[in-house]
Every structure is written in structure tokens, then in C-alpha cells.
Amino acid sequence: MPQTPSPDLHAVVREIAEEMRARPDRGEVATYIPELARVDASAFGLVVIDADGTIAAGGDADVAFSIQSISKVFTLTLALGMVGDRLWRRVGREPSGSPFNSIVQLERERGIPRNPFINAGAIAVTDVILSGHQPREALGEILRFMQFLAEDPTIAIDEAVAASELRTGFRNVALANYMKSFGVLDNPVDFTLGVYFHHCAISMTCRQLARAGRFLVHSGRTPSTGHSVVSAERARRINAVMLTCGHYDGSGEFAYRVGLPGKSGVGGGILAVAPGRASIAVWSPGLDASGNSHLGRIALEILTRRLGWSIFGV
Amino acid sequence: MPQTPSPDLHAVVREIAEEMRARPDRGEVATYIPELARVDASAFGLVVIDADGTIAAGGDADVAFSIQSISKVFTLTLALGMVGDRLWRRVGREPSGSPFNSIVQLERERGIPRNPFINAGAIAVTDVILSGHQPREALGEILRFMQFLAEDPTIAIDEAVAASELRTGFRNVALANYMKSFGVLDNPVDFTLGVYFHHCAISMTCRQLARAGRFLVHSGRTPSTGHSVVSAERARRINAVMLTCGHYDGSGEFAYRVGLPGKSGVGGGILAVAPGRASIAVWSPGLDASGNSHLGRIALEILTRRLGWSIFGV
Amino acid sequence: MPQTPSPDLHAVVREIAEEMRARPDRGEVATYIPELARVDASAFGLVVIDADGTIAAGGDADVAFSIQSISKVFTLTLALGMVGDRLWRRVGREPSGSPFNSIVQLERERGIPRNPFINAGAIAVTDVILSGHQPREALGEILRFMQFLAEDPTIAIDEAVAASELRTGFRNVALANYMKSFGVLDNPVDFTLGVYFHHCAISMTCRQLARAGRFLVHSGRTPSTGHSVVSAERARRINAVMLTCGHYDGSGEFAYRVGLPGKSGVGGGILAVAPGRASIAVWSPGLDASGNSHLGRIALEILTRRLGWSIFGV
Amino acid sequence: MPQTPSPDLHAVVREIAEEMRARPDRGEVATYIPELARVDASAFGLVVIDADGTIAAGGDADVAFSIQSISKVFTLTLALGMVGDRLWRRVGREPSGSPFNSIVQLERERGIPRNPFINAGAIAVTDVILSGHQPREALGEILRFMQFLAEDPTIAIDEAVAASELRTGFRNVALANYMKSFGVLDNPVDFTLGVYFHHCAISMTCRQLARAGRFLVHSGRTPSTGHSVVSAERARRINAVMLTCGHYDGSGEFAYRVGLPGKSGVGGGILAVAPGRASIAVWSPGLDASGNSHLGRIALEILTRRLGWSIFGV
Asked: How high is the ipTM of this complex?
């Protein structure tokens, strides 16, 4: 196993972590889930795992945070594994042009969410995973999948965050019931939402998250284990959906500035994929107006520029 | 200059052209511009120019067609060259989640179009190019830019198509006047629309179009001439906008299936960019429900799969 | 008290009931609340109580039906009595231009429903009535108010209908949670919806309903008892809201054809008010595309034309 | 003919004119038509013509102002006279829930405007009047109709206002072209808009306007001349559309506060109809947020309350 670190990568990651630490502009920590508002706004972590398996880490690389919507990449992967392309009867794969929690598009399109990365779409995906099982079982399956991908059985759900959202996530309750009214959800709304709130409340460090994302870099395989998670075509397609839809109504901006498939969460994390090159996890709790990590996006922009990793050209 | 053709590429292009010729599903030829409805629905052309300058051509590679919205890639490039990032005060760069001619988003966002590749956005871009000049001059500049990029001074405007749209393009007149009412356009609406209708009416062959797109493949430079058209960063960014916004409300689908930045036109053409690898032009007049070439998209999907050219992984 | 019936009125009501019985076009019985779908589609009832207290009844005047959204007139009246014009901070009084259960407008206007007669608005009104009480108490108050107005203590809630909607009213659960997410509801969503579903499930006959509506005809007073229910100004204003908003996106049509303030319910009932002249209740279960009683509206159109009761001129 | 003035009416009108003169809150004079911005913001006029023909006038009752959208009542009347109920294939009669110049609803409903009193709807009505004629002829017909109704051949078009809107009315140009793109307009857009801008630019005094509105009060007849302008049913129906749609997205508010059918214009005028009782014209140039005369609406609210003229009850 090649463990010789690429010196450039280590240096770049360290420099970026230092630059980000020093910046005064940090965005706004999400407050809509009360438990998330308690996080330290000055935190910043960055981990890059390249094709050789080299791990470059900077800042708070080993502090766990709430992955929130980043979990949607993994539930999408799981659901595609379970039902294949039939999943696309329940959810589209077009950018929505709307905020993460918009309900307007659902009315026009009769309960079919635009893509699996807005809240409504992720709830529909969770409903597919749940199908025919108890919430506890479905949630266990999602959690074990994360542990398997990250090769780390300690990954866990932050019950305080899940409980916080269960008490206050009225908008998501609205979205789920709205889809239910169109017959788009099969399971009891409470079951589906229970699983959804809990998988969003999974806590991971940048290191764990970058590990979990490796299969998307390497044609569906996790290099360290040789496990084939999905086919190469499916990995490409998940990356494509991340590129067009991974940052809500800031997806175009992320593609324009960073040039990598990525998925953000309101906990301040972003998972980014440089196909064939690297799995990248960044975390900074302050968000921009679209609900994406402010410094996380900037750090990724600098990283891809310095390393020439944009998928849109060198 | 390397002229040894890659045998694979030639074979792949020829095979795809034959497969497409044989397919019964051809989509619907656009009728909203009467002149466009007169085209031969069975036409199919495909040209790929790879990094070595090898040109592989199949089908009706040398039949001229109306490039329509593909011209928006080139007007965006020109306008960025003229005013730089100030352009983004006039137009966004987010996918719209709406059809190409939607006016709804404009009302919500006070006349600022979502991106330069929907009609409203391209009209705003044309207004920037026009600024302070006569329509004839601005149009001349656009046409000369196309001729320069394609290294072909014979490229011309199809006046019958332009006249046809001038007579019937009420929706675009609406969009332009709507933006004007918000102060987003500087020039007389008739001037801006005159230039817009005419640059959409440029006629090109697949061969010419693939040539014109080379600078987006090679970090902003046209390899055969060595001319630097835009900076490498700008080329990447134009590609990013093509990926997220190039196919109206079918942009997510194109990214998912084809995995390349691309821009379609209602004339049935698509320009696609495989960064570092190839400039690709395809043409088949029948459109899908989103207004993108039906067989053109399928041909590109097969091409990128066979050649492993997706930007989202091998 | 004058009890001599106006012969014309009796004849007109009888004739209309017969005409309606004979018509083949009956609209579609609502199916979205399963229990409502079991009603007899051929039923038709009409009761008019004029200024003298004369009661003219035709058809199924004494068959109870689910008043559904007609209850919103009475909850609006109660809530205005409790909090006065402060109610209008929670709900608007403009026609919505949208179907009864639309959620789109709520997103644009940050959770404030357009008027108290669309579902979202009525839920907000119910939340005001509930404020600080147990659901059982609030519901008791609404029911006693109906019994008091109709002078009939036998009026009751159809628990099967309430239970049916509790099980299937996902759209209303969505609307309520959506408003809750904007802070527009004070009480637990389940409490508010419980009261809402139950007051919609009140069963009344046309005779009872026409009695209950008399205070809106006579400047806020119930003539038979002399009770002042609301001020004359408030009665006028409730009538105005009924005129502009009482029939969802068919309100303009109702005003145009019938020319009276009215409020419909998906159970097929309509309460109409001819100010100074008569309280009118009509019932026919089949609905038109806007969710209003098809024959009920036609019957009222004929009635007002024959009697010259339109508020828009003789 | 009874010419003895009702002393109360004269006193009420005079008092209201004085009260309004003294109020500091005057709304904002419209600036979107530059020529209109030049009007004196302190002007206030009020004229009431009751069923006896008594004319009570207060304030600037004889100063001409631009009637703007009030003209839509008369073009609707004319168009119904020309094509009858076929008009409703071109335009709806539901409140729109949107501002006067919204284009969003048009996209959803394929170019059919919601009602004849929003700009799009009035343009469609003008197109019906124009049908088969030269703009000059159609405009002459509209103007003669106004002169006939007001019994005053001096009523004229303010060409400076018409020219001002021709130069700046981009939003209306957008609306018209948008409808044209759906095939809703028959005539060249420039012809239809030319007539539309000119009939909106008709100048009238409150006295003239109140005279012109009398046929809507008296079942379609002008009492002084005995001319039958429309049938009684049509007069009622026009009043109904005025009530539900006459004040854009302030229509509900006007019904709630004033309780009369009415139509406002951005010139600050309002024509209100108390069926069977009085024709009322008020003018004060300052507008509220919905584009309706601020003091005009308040004056009418006081007037109907003092005289007990609300159609919703005494």
C-alpha cells in the first residue's frame, strides 16, 4: 500500500486550513435545528484522500460534526442498490432552481421531488429504503453502510440532533405529508421521517467522511478494501447528480467556482469528489445564503485551483 | 501536426452515425420557428475533434443547420471578454429548473435571468455585447468571432430563419420587454432582439461547430492556431455553466446520461466538450420534450460510454 | 311575527328543487375524504328563510350532510369575536386565485394564508380559537356556537367523517406543519388539526344551516331570538370575505353567476346570504372542478335571478 | 325628474372632501408612467350621483385626470356588446391574487388572463374591440362610447400620457407579446397596445366619470337619457367582476372596507357603483401598495358607512 505522502498535497491542505482559520468571514451557523446552533463557529477541518491512499489532513480533521444532507449521497446509493432505476419514478434528477426546503415545485409536479438532494427528494429516497421494514432496521442498514464505507464501526447517530429536529422540523413534516397526499410515500409519514431525521443526524469527522466517499472517486470501488460498492456507471451518475443538484440553489455556483461534484449539509460539511483523483471532506459550520458551508466552498475552490483538479479542464 | 487518426475514434463515430440513422425514434422537429420546421428530420451528423487534431466525422457532418441556442456559448464568451465578471450583475449562473422560454422566474427575481443559456439570459448577454454599438456592428463581431474560432470565413447567417423568428418570436419579445421593464437591458429592445435573432440564425455544419468549440477543450486555446481565446479558468467556468445549464430543464438528464458539458439548440445541434480530450458536435433535428436533440443526446451518451470520456469518472 | 309565507318564495324553491332533481349533470362527489364518497349523489336540498322568518324548503331539506368548509364562516365569526382585528395578522382577506389546498402561496407569503376560507387560512383561524385551551373545549365551543345560531341542540359532529380525514388528510397536515414552520400556529399542530378536522365534520341539514346563517342577513342579529351575534359592520365584512373568497378559485364565477356572498363545502353544501332578505342553504353532493357544489351553484343562480336578489343590482 | 338634492348627501360629500384634504397620509403618486408623476399629489375630488339624479360634488370635482385602468370597465362593456359571452374564451373572470402587471399567471394558464381588469386581461379585451378595424377607428369607438355615457363630447385623450406610456410601458409590451405567443391576440401587437395605451390615457373629471358609470347603477340604463346600454343581467355581472377583481390584489380589501363594486386606476381615480343607489367617482393621486388610490378608498369607506350603502348589509 503506497504510504509515501505527496508532499504537495500535504502542504496545500495545511496552507488552506491555515488560511481559512484566519479569515474573518465565516457565514452564519444554521439555527433552524436548535442543537446545531451550539457548534463552534470557528471550527475548520479538511481531509483529502488521493488515488494512492495518501491522507492529507488539516485543522479539525478529527472532530465529528452532523453530516445532515451529506447523508443523502449515501441513501441515494443504497436506494439505487435496492430498486435500481425504478427509483427515478419517485424522484427526478434535475436541478430544482429552488431552496432546499421549497414546497412550490412539489405542487406543480404532483408530489414528485425534483432530485434526491433536496429535502423532499431525500425523504422520498428514505421511504424507498424503509419499504417493508421497521424504522429501526432501515436506520441500522444506513448506519452500517456508512461504517462499512468509512471502515469505521464507531460512526454513530447524534440522538440529541435527531431529537431536536423531530421537535422542530415542521417544514420537513410538511414536505413529507404533502408527498404522502400525492401517494408518493408508501410508509407511514412518521416512520419515514423518523429514519430521515436520524440519518441526517449521523456524526462523522472529515477523515471518516472522506473515507466514505472513496467509492465515488474510483469507479464504484473502495480501493483499500477492493470492495465494489456500485458499478462504475452508477458511480459516474451519482457524481453527475451531485454536480447538478448537490448544493440546492447554489449548485451552479459550486460547479462554477469549485468544478467538482459535491454535496453539502447544513452542519457545514461538504463531501467533494475529484473523479480518479481524490475524495475530499471539508467542514466549517458557517453557511452562505444558500445553506452551504461558506468557508468550505472557498477552501475547495482554492484546493481545486492549486491542484488542477476541476473536472472542467486544467 | 499529428494527423494520424486514432482508428478507434473513427470507428466509434462511424458506428454511432449508422446506429442513429437506423433508429425509428427521432423526436419532434421544432415548429415554433416556421423556417426550422422545413428541415429533413432524418438528418444526422457527428464530428469529433480529439486532442491530436484528429477529426472523425459521420453522417451529415457537412450539412449546415441553424445553431440557434448553441450560439449562446459564444456570445457568453464574447461578453465575458468585454466586461468580465461584471456580466454576472445582469445574469445569474444557476440552473433554472424551468423551460427555455419561461418568464416566471424573471418576475420573482426582478428581471435578472437565472443563467446565460435560457433565452432571457442570452438576450441579456446580447444586450451587453451590443452596448453602445449599432446592431449591424455587434452582429458582425459575433459572426467574425465564430468564423475565427472555426477558422472558416464562410460561416453565415441564414436570413430566412432570422426573418422567420423576427415575425413569430413573440415569446422572446415578451422576455426582452419584461427585462427592459426592470431596467436590465440598456439598448432599445428592437436592437437587442435583432442581434439575438440573427446570431441564433447562424448556420454551421457539425465540422465547423466542433472546430469552434476547441478552445473550451484546451484551456482556452485553439490548438491548431495557438490562439488564446480565453484564460484557462474562464474556459473551465464556461464549461461548468454548460454542464449545469446547457440543456434547459433537461440539464440534469444530460449530465446524468452523457457526463459532458454541452449546449443544445432547437435546430437539433449539440456542442459537447470533453475537457482535454475532444470537441464534439452532433446534429439531429428531432427534439425531446425539453427541446434538446433526441438522437443527439443518445449519440453522445453512447460516445462517452464507449470512449470513457465522462467527466464524472471512467 | 309575520308567519304568512310568501307564496312566490315557496313556489320558486319547490320548482328549483324539482328542476335540479331532473338534471343529469350532477358533478363529481368528493372522494378525497373516503367517508364523504359514500353519500347519495342524487340528493338535493334547498331551504330559504326570508326576512319575515318564512321558511321555504325543497328536496332533501332535512337530510344532514357534512358541512365541511362552510364551518369556516362560523369559526371566522368566533375568532373575530375572540381577538378582533388582530386576527388579520395571522391571515389575509384577499382572494387567492388558487385551489382550496394550494401550498404555493404560503411559501411566497411566509406562512400567512391569503384568506380564512382556504384550508390554510381556516387552520390558522382554528389555531386562534384553540389558543390556550384543550382541543375538546375549543371544539365544544364551536359546536355550541352552531347549535346556538341554528337554535338546535341536536347538531353534532360526524365522528366517522372526522376520523376519515384524520387518517387521510395529508395535505392539510402538510399545510399546518408548513405554517408552523413559519411560526404562524401557536398550538401543537395535532391539536389544531384535530379541532379543524372535527369542525369540518359537523353534520347539518339545509334547514339548520339556513337558520345558522341568519345573523349575516340581518346586520349581525338573529331575528327570531333578537340575539346580537356580531356588530352590523362585522356582519357586512364577513359577507364581503364570503363574496370574494368563499368559493376558492371559483369565487369570481360564483359572484358573476349568483351575485350573493356564499361559502361552499366539499360535502356539497353552500350557505348563501342575501343581505336584508334571506339566508339560503343548498345541498347537492356533486362538485365542479373548483370543488364547489355543481347543482348547488346552479340552483342559487336561478333563485337569485327569479327573485331579483343579486347584490349587484336588480 | 326630481332635482331636489338630498341634503344629507351634499353634506356628507362636502365633509368627506374636507376631511380628505386635511389628511397627511396621501400614498405615493405613480411614477411608472413619467407623465403621471407630474400630477398634484394634494388633489382630491368626489362626485356622487344618486338615483334621483342629484349630483353632490366635493373638492376637485371638475379637474380632469388620467382614468387609466378605469377605462377597462368601459372596454369590457363594449367588448361584451360586440361578441357577448364569447369574450370569456379570451379572458377569465376570477380574481388573480396577483399584482396588476403580473405575468406569472399567464404562463401557468397558457396566455389566458385571469380577468379583464388586470393589464393582460384588458389588453385581450382591447384586442377583441380592435378586431378587423384600424386602431384609429377602434379608439374612436371607445372614446365616443365614453362621451355618450357621460353625455359630454369634450372628453378627450391626453396624448402626452399615451406617448409617455408608449415609450416606457415595457411590461405591457411584454404581456401583450406573451399572450400573442399563445395565440390569444388576433391583431398585430403594436395595434392592440396602441389602442390600449390610448384608452388608458383618456382624461376625465370626477363629474364626467360618475355620469359615465350610471348605467351600472340602474340595471344597464342611463336614467337621464333612458338609453339602455346593456341588459340588467350584464350590468349585474360587470358589477360582480368589479367587486371581485376591480382593485388587483387589493380587491378583497376594497370589498371588505368599502363594500361596493369599484374599479381603480393608477391615475388615482376610482369609479364605484352602489347598485340602485348611486354612481360615485373619487380621485386622489397618491396610491397604496396595491396601486389603488389611498385616500380614494378611505373616502369611499367613510361614504358607504355614513350612507349605509354597502351591498353586504346595512
From this structure: 0.94
